[in-house]
Design goal:
By secondary structure, this protein is an alpha+beta fold. The chain contains 11 helices and 19 strands. A hairpin with a 2-residue loop joins β1 and β2. α1 packs antiparallel against α11.
């Protein structure tokens, strides 16, 4: 089927149908908030609405769509939907449309986050940008394929997943699908991860390493600071030394410019915790927390090992660390006491650099230029979990999305209907180009 015929067959987004489906999905957003252990999303509630749209076009009802409903945990479903092409092994896929959302506090919003509201072009509610808007968009694409039944060379697949917003829980979503080899055939063509924003190809993402630096000193009255080991001063000086070494060993990478990263890799504190007490009391401990945002040209494992080396060395040579003022000290020899640092890490993930030589990337760029009017690929040191693992497994991962970065994980989240319409046109163009 000629590419132009594909475009004519698939047409444009049915706005009324899309908005009706999105209304149902946002109506479930309260129940798919992902913040365990308090909030465990029930993605099956979203699955039901997607199936209501697609099952009439499934093979079970005489249609062309193959629908595989896969569940690894009660109430937490995934959907693999396939529109078969006529050439064996020729495939493209849309993956990553996740059916969970981050939390929303209605008291902080100007409108109900759990009900779709419309303000001109704005479609407002939790999940409109991330990522229920994309769930609805790709559902409408698969529905159109089921309705019009174009004869395609390529098989088109859509994978709607559970549990993207919390990487601490595993074995529920796309990781389990990959482990069970249910996505192996997707290696036969480009895999478009639909979960970014701003209508342009996102060609690079950052890794994230959350860390905590626990510092132990000695409590004493602030009027006698020479009898204390001030953990606040120790934390500040130690962190300064750790950051200095980090930027020495992980400087801006030459490839970051090629990919258009706004920043190089960074390590910085974001939170500070210490026990209560009077202003005239030097505390005995404190904890500084933060993260490393790592461009994909460095190894997360290497960074974690280096940071631990830095901390071990500072502990061994704590007398050499800069102090503050004439009586500031980190060792009390008379009492045989030493200040100490303990570094721990939370769940880390790696960034991804998409293959810029891939046909899938060039097709996405051309489709974006056609639909949006310009193409300007970008990279972010924000983190997208899961996709590096897919790339490492041999999938040609490309990423895009049609919500708004400014409202991603934010209060008063919304997307634009016009952007979603352009996203649909990008998908249609991708399918038609890959027919040639």
């Amino acid at each position: 089927m000629a590419s132009q015929q594909v475009k004519e067959s698939l047409g444009t987004l049915n706005k009324d149908s899309f908005v009706a489906l999105l209304t149902n999905l946002i109506g479930e957003s309260k129940f798919v908030q992902n913040n365990p252990p308090e909030l465990i999303p029930q993605e099956e509630r979203v699955v039901k609405h997607v199936l209501d749209v697609l099952l009439p076009y499934s093979t079970a009802n005489g249609g062309p769509l193959l629908v595989n409903h896969v569940t690894y945990s009660p109430g937490r479903g995934n959907l693999i939907v396939e529109y078969p092409g006529i050439e064996l092994g020729k495939i493209l896929s849309f993956v990553g449309m996740h059916m969970d959302v981050v939390t929303a506090n209605p008291n902080d919003w100007e409108f109900d986050p759990f009900t779709l509201s419309i303000d001109g072009e704005k479609l407002r509610g939790r999940g409109t940008t991330d990522c229920l808007g994309h769930v609805a968009l790709v559902t409408e694409l698969m529905k159109r394929l089921g309705e019009t039944k174009p004869k395609l060379k390529s098989t088109v697949m859509a994978v709607f997943i559970a549990n993207e917003e919390n990487s601490a829980i595993t074995g529920v979503g796309v990781d389990a699908l990959v482990k069970d080899r249910l996505l192996n055939k997707l290696k036969g063509g480009p895999l478009y991860w639909i979960d970014t924003a701003d209508k342009q190809p996102c060609i690079g993402t950052g890794g994230m390493i959350p860390w905590k630096l626990h510092v132990t000193g000695k409590l004493f009255h602030s009027g006698l600071p020479h009898k204390a080991i001030n953990p606040l001063e120790l934390a500040m000086e130690a962190l300064k030394e750790i950051q200095t070494r980090f930027y020495r060993d992980f400087p801006p990478h030459p490839k970051e410019q090629d990919y258009g990263f706004a920043t190089p890799s960074t390590m910085k504190p974001t939170q500070w915790h210490y026990p209560g007490g009077g202003i005239n009391q030097i505390p005995f401990e404190c904890t500084v927390s933060g993260d490393v945002r790592l461009t994909p040209f460095y190894s997360v494992k290497d960074v974690m090992e280096k940071l631990q080396e830095f901390v071990d060395d500072i502990n061994e040579n704590i007398e050499k660390l800069d102090t503050r003022g004439p009586v500031s000290k980190y060792v009390l020899h008379d009492e045989n006491l030493r200040g100490s640092l303990t570094l721990t890490f939370n769940e880390a993930n790696s960034g991804v650099a998409c293959n810029l030589d891939s046909r899938g990337f060039h097709v996405l760029c051309k489709a974006t230029e056609e639909a949006v009017g310009h193409v300007k690929p970008y990279s972010i040191t924000g983190s997208l979990p899961l996709i590096r693992e897919l790339q490492d497994e041999g999938f040609d991962v490309q990423t895009a999305g049609y919500g708004l970065m400014a409202t991603y994980h934010a209060k008063n989240e919304y997307c634009l209907l016009s952007d979603m319409c352009q996203g649909f046109q990008v998908f249609v163009s991708i399918i038609s180009q890959l027919e040639d």
